[in-house]
């Protein structure tokens, strides 16, 4: 690693101030930043540790489930509130990485990084969630801008994510056997935001909604309704793990499994 200053603020305001440095980097769970630092692919002037900001919580107010930005995947997976409100979200969190990753990685860190194979972006997009930061509220449809790219400013911190409680919601993924990242993951939901289907791991531009499957499920929320929907391979990723055509096939399979499990 290169030399850098280390700050561990106890308030969001102080964290934002430290992140005002042009070369500062925020540290949430560290599942992406630490490996990048070890590989010397990033050289921050200061690392701002967010663990003391008291942003790890789950609470429900009416039909909204709010999860703090520093809440770990393991906490979400075992939370009674999440299991009662949106069981599919708890299931998603419980299948991220391995035990070590789940106990360190955070929902805010995952969304800020926006890895194209991450699971949480699919849940946020499918459920029509709202990303709450230290300065604004961002609708899921306006948040994601492509691989590793979001609308967040460099010094902006995700403080919470608000999920509308859905009548039906579930997630299925075909995972890489080593990393457990989603080669293809599909989250389906029917809730206040309507019927929505979000796909991660497959698209060249990162997470995306599948309009044809949404339309089919809006008419009939069943496996049969989407079994004949055409999944184009034109904009799918192709790599050593799966070809574009195979990913297109998996989108249909994972979507059907997700619907069957709601």
Topology:
Layout: E1 5-7, H1 12-19, E2 24-27, H2 33-38, E3 46-49, E4 58-61, E5 64-68, H3 73-78, H4 80-85, H5 87-94, H6 99-104, H7 107-113, H8 120-126, E6 130-133, E7 137-139, H9 140-143, E8 144-146, E9 149-150, E10 158-164, E11 168-175, E12 182-191, E13 194-200, E14 208-209, H10 211-219, H11 223-227, H12 244-260
Parallel strand pairs: 1-3, 2-3
Antiparallel strand pairs: 4-5, 5-10, 6-7, 6-10, 8-9, 11-12, 12-13, 13-14
Output the number of helix runs. 12
Give helix and strand order, one letter per element, not per position: EHEHEEEHHHHHHEEHEEEEEEEHHH
CATH architecture name of the domain at 168-260? 2-Layer Sandwich
| Strand order of the biggest β-sheet | 4-5-10-6-7
Envelope shape? globular
Query: What structural category arises from helix and sheet content?
Result: alpha+beta
Count of beta strands: 14
Looking at the structure, the CATH topology of the domain at 168-260 is: Enolase-like, domain 1
Regions with pLDDT < 50 over 5+ consecutive residues? none
Look at the structure and name the CATH superfamily of the domain at 168-260: CO dehydrogenase flavoprotein, C-terminal domain
Can you characterise this structure?
This protein is of the alpha+beta class and 262 residues long. Among the domains are: 52 residues, 2-Layer Sandwich (Uridine Diphospho-n-acetylenolpyruvylglucosamine Reductase, domain 2); 93 residues, Enolase-like, domain 1 (2-Layer Sandwich). 34% of the residues lie in helices and 25% in strands. The protein contains twelve helices and 14 strands. The strands form four sheets. A five-stranded antiparallel sheet has the order 4-5-10-6-7. The protein has a four-stranded antiparallel sheet with strand order 11-12-13-14, sandwiched between helices. It has a three-stranded parallel sheet with strand order 1-3-2, with helices on one face. It is globular and about 55 Å long. The model has no long low-confidence stretch (mean pLDDT 96).
